[in-house]
Design a protein that fits this description.
By secondary structure, the protein is α+β, with helices and mostly antiparallel strands. Helices cover 24% and strands 32% of the residues.
Length: 357
């Protein structure tokens, strides 16, 4: 396995890019530690696949370097990088048995037959497919086909990184959680460096130790699932992580005080910087319905099972609240309280408050 470093990486599909808008990937600096589980998370068109193709060697970046450990692999072909890749659609040979499919990457590299047999047995046990080793792949269900595709990526023990490109997209929803759990278990057992590319926050947050969130070709935050939820560094992260996402509300500043529809709102700490477009950010989970505070009118209540999602209007601003208590009825006049340690200012999208120690 390898530590992967992306240094000052930029890429444009234009031969002569003239400005930032011409770059599919803006400057990216990321390091993934050897043996870690990572996710690239972002909406379609944000640059995830471009970055994955650059790491795998299918694209040469316009600028910057890719290092495996301290070896510069920027200009190396895919077959010289020792990478395994699992795609959206299972890449297996339908005419071969499961055993033959798992053995193929090793057989193709001239590995000793005894070692092939041992390794195939190990991976089959991990995937819980021992009883189908002699079944032809064409007869497998879609989820089992994807399991075998994963196994083909994991069977080699000489790979630098295993990359998963939205591998659960074509899997039925009721089977996705099984494969997510299995993939997490596999990582814990083999300790391979794994990078999981997805637009699905649930897949990213349940698989990865650390998530790279991308928007419009740039990295807006790198952090653990807890860090992304608890302290989004950008309003996009607040929107994209969480269901419902973070409330991003218009406000004014009076010194270090935020004014929201004429009411003072306490913040997590001092405000930094000057100018720009100011917004107040607070997650629905960090708003309480209480006896006093911001006056609001309830416009909608949704019972989602584990809790209620309450939508209310403060002036002309819509605010969402998550509560596990009995929810007020639609049309009720209520008061809201924002938790000060979880309420912050964003300036031009980026966090602009310092957290108190």
């Amino acid at each position: 396995m390898a530590r992967i470093t992306l240094s000052k990486l930029r890429h444009s599909y234009y031969p002569n890019p003239s400005g930032p808008e011409d770059y599919a990937l803006k400057e990216i600096d990321v390091t993934w530690k050897d043996g870690g589980a990572y996710a690239l998370l972002g909406p379609s068109g944000c640059g995830k696949s471009t970055l994955l193709n650059i790491i795998s060697g299918l694209l040469v970046p316009s600028e910057g370097q890719i290092l495996f450990d301290d070896r510069d692999v920027t200009s190396l072909a895919p077959d010289q990088r020792n990478i395994a890749q699992v795609f959206q659609f299972p890449v297996i040979y339908d005419t071969m048995t499961v055993r033959q499919n798992l053995a193929f990457p090793l057989k193709n590299r001239g590995v000793d037959p005894a070692r092939i047999e041992q390794r195939v047995a190990e991976i089959a046990a991990m995937l819980e497919v021992e009883d189908m080793l002699d079944t032809r792949a064409s007869g497998l269900s879609p989820d089992n086909k994807q399991k075998i595709s994963m196994g083909r990526g994991l069977v080699r023990d000489d790979v630098n990184v295993v990359m998963f490109d939205e591998p659960l997209t074509v899997i039925d929803p009721h089977l996705k959680w099984k494969l997510r759990s299995k993939l997490k278990e596999l990582h814990q057992r083999v300790r391979a460096t794994m990078i999981y590319v997805t637009h699905d926050q649930t897949e990213a947050l349940t698989f990865a130790d650390e998530v790279v969130v991308m928007q419009d070709g740039e990295v807006v935050q790198i952090g653990t699932p807890v860090e992304l939820f608890e302290r989004p560094q950008h309003t996009f992260v607040g929107h994209f992580i969480g269901s419902p996402g973070m409330n991003v509300l218009p406000c004014e500043m009076n010194g270090d005080r935020a004014i929201f529809h004429g009411h003072d709102v306490a913040l997590e700490g001092p405000v930094t910087g000057q100018g720009g477009t100011i917004r107040l950010g607070v997650r629905p989970e960090h708003i309480d319905i209480q006896e006093s505070g911001l006056p609001a009118r309830v416009t909608k209540v949704s019972d989602v099972g584990r809790h209620f999602v309450v939508e209310a209007m403060v002036g002309d601003s819509a605010v969402k609240i998550v509560t596990e208590e009995h929810a007020p009825e639609q049309g009720t006049e209520v008061h809201l309280g924002f938790r000060p340690d979880k309420t912050r200012i964003y300036r031009d999208g980026w966090i602009a408050t310092e957290a108190r120690a």
